[in-house]
Amino acid sequence: MSKSKATNIVRMDWLRNRTPTGRRSATKARRLAQYLAFGRGRLQEQMERPQRGKWLDESGQIISHENVLQWVKARGMENLFTQQFILSVKDAALTPEAFNRAMSAGGDLFPEWRLIQHEDSRHPHAHALAFGQEEIRIKSEAFRQWWLDVRAALERERQAQIERERAQKLEHSLEIQVEQTAVSNQHQAIEKPEKSHQQGWGLG
Questions:
Q1: Would residue 193 count as lying in a domain?
Q2: Fewest 10 Å CB contacts: which of 4, 15, 81, 177?
Q3: pTM
């Protein structure tokens, strides 16, 4: 499927949790989590902004940013790789929970993550962070199956959201029609006594 026809996107990137000298370090991963939550800039500038979305863990629980930073630090020191995922869809405003369910559809390849949807973006998308000891090769069969499963789940979530939005628009349209009919009936009810009164005085 070409990029122009794709209705959802799933991408992965990774970084090593090591310094140039080979020491364990979660600094890059921690900075990445900070950026995902507050955008670019120095720490003071970041903390003056509202958080860009809420963090969810793999079970769907809301997690505080401080808790996420502690998790990132611990997992970054334990694991060689930090994986970053981007999930995006077209023409549907998915919730963080919907993006999280799509991540869950991938199975056990990435059993633990923290996900944040960016609510200040023109295009609905979410970022997720995970950790592992082994480099995940994009062309591997295991990753490809995970990628296909997550994309299929995203498409289901997208279609469900589109149907909900259509139903909401239809319901809103029906409410407007009912309201307009009620107003019209009310006007007719008021006009009838006035016309009868005018005829009684020889004005009709």
A1: no
A2: 4
A3: 0.79
